[in-house]
Protein: Glycosyltransferase 2-like domain-containing protein
Organism: Urochloa decumbens
Amino acid sequence: MAPWSGLWGAKAGGDAYRGTPVVVKMENPNWSISEISSPEDDDEEILATGARRKGGRTKNAKQIRWVLLLKAHRAAGCLASLASAAVALGGAARRRVAAGRTDAEAGVVAATGESPVVRSRFYAFIKAFLAVSLLLLAVEVAAYINGWDLADSALALPVIGLESLYASWLRFRAAYVAPGIQFLTDACVVLFLIQSADRLIQCLGCFYIRLKRIKPTPKSTALPDAEDPDAGYYPMVLVQIPMCNEKEVYQQSIAAVCNLDWPKSNFLVQVLDDSDDPLTQTLIREEVAKWQQQGARIVYRHRVLRDGYKAGNLKSAMSCSYVRDYEFVAIFDADFQPNPDFLKRTVPHFKDNDELGLVQARWSFVNRDENLLTRLQYINLCFHFEVEQQVNGVFLNFFGFNGTAGVWRIKALEDSGGWMERTTVEDMDIAVRAHLHGWKFIFLNDVECQCELPESYEAYRKQQHRWHSGPMQLFRLCLPDIIKCKIAFWKKANLIFLFFLLRKLILPFYSFTLFCIILPMTMFVPEAELPDWVVCYIPALMSLLNILPSPKSFPFIIPYLLFENTMSVTKFNAMISGLFQLGSAYEWVVTKKSGRSSEGDLISLAPKELKHQKTGSAPNLDAVAKEQLASKKDGKKKHNRIYKKELALSMLLLTAAARSLLSKQGIHFYFLLFQGISFLLVGLDLIGEQVE
């Protein structure tokens, strides 16, 4: 670093400032005084005790000032980065508002599958609640400015004018409004504690599994030589890939499945294409033909009518006459890429275990670090697989089938009634019915299958709506069968109270009601109290438990907590739709994929003799890429949108935060402020994929 003149340099024509010349070591950005040395530091000084010390001169005030200046420079750099990020965020928000594209557009409403009537009523309720909150805030601000700080003893005294109206409002609020809010608050707190206890018990179960190293092990494993069916346990396996208009990912999934390490004569691949796009149909059909020419046993099936969505597709495929020759069926969604040893690590669990109906593998994600939205999804799904699925599989031999990356015993499917189109969660439906018929499940936490996470908030919102409306719809249909079924009472109780009510109904209900409705109301009705430990400490503890399976995501614990409360609006709306059988509960929306696997991944999946050629029967990657690019240009453009419910709730929470300042409720203010900002960012669609 060049020496400074003036204050830090030598005087012109005179002696230099006294002190040690400074040499700053900048290898480590965290500068400290110990990292400042002088040229004389190599000299040795003999101390009074006779010991020798290197660097005879001590640090002086100028060196400390230099350290402080460097730290100030670093802090200024951080502030500049934050300022530039804030400016970019503000610019994106301004463009979003100027574009004026909202989720209320007809095409978006149809795509999300939400009922327009329920949507409008729910939004009208939030707007009315916001209007009342703004009115109450204006009243409280006026009372604060005018000093109408009436004590309880003064409420009974006669007062005149506006102060009289304010006193009447206080009496009415304390006598009639506060008791109802307090009752609802106490009820939600009880549900919150029950759900938190359930989560804590699951985490303790996961800790016990790790401590004891409990792991499902097959009684017989397949031998390494997969070309000799008689050498080991290689039963007949049917592999199904249901897909619908997913041209971004079809090639990688077909390639991965065709490269499964299993005797070719003992497994057949069914590509179940429900696409209504002619170009996509052609691409998939040609891809199947290419692999057929390479000797892969793969067939292409297309339905003209998409009756029953995915369940109808699977049901139609199982009706083929050749299915009776197969004992097991493995299912992979279009964006899933199983490892070559997938069947070797899953199918052997069925040998000598006639009660086993399902083996479920864990998901891994190719795009978990793509943006903030995918990182937050990764935290949720890590907890789901590491804790929920694993604990339920070990201790109960039952969990919800994830719809993909699993192997079913075909006899279990037939015994349970097969695939049914009555709900949009056909995977959970078949799992519940199989459980009622006595079949057991195994979850393999160490067997992973690669897939994608939704990268845009719109796609994630659609997915969550389906995942939370379907279970309530299924609960209404399955409840009579659960009650009449001849299984153990504790299994019935687990299905009704834990699997459905607590984890599918109560969780979105209290999350939305407690943190988005009751908490703001307690700011305007302070007679109803919500303890600090409910607002801060317990949610923080639960978020910490959720993030334990993915410790590298710990820096995102606060955004995760706020985002989960933000998503409670969508989940609550979906839960109501499914519970009361509204129109949106029956709509299936395919989650948009990006096709994150690279060309190198596809080449590695191709047969060895095809990796260096681009013509003939090899998958023509360049041609497919050009076709996909052309289809993207010809197709509809994607846009970021404004979500009106989230924006209205952000205004409500920020209004409540402003009201909390008048009564100095510290932790409530910070929670409402950051939660309101979280709703604002989500409402402006600034959290996921940004389309330029």
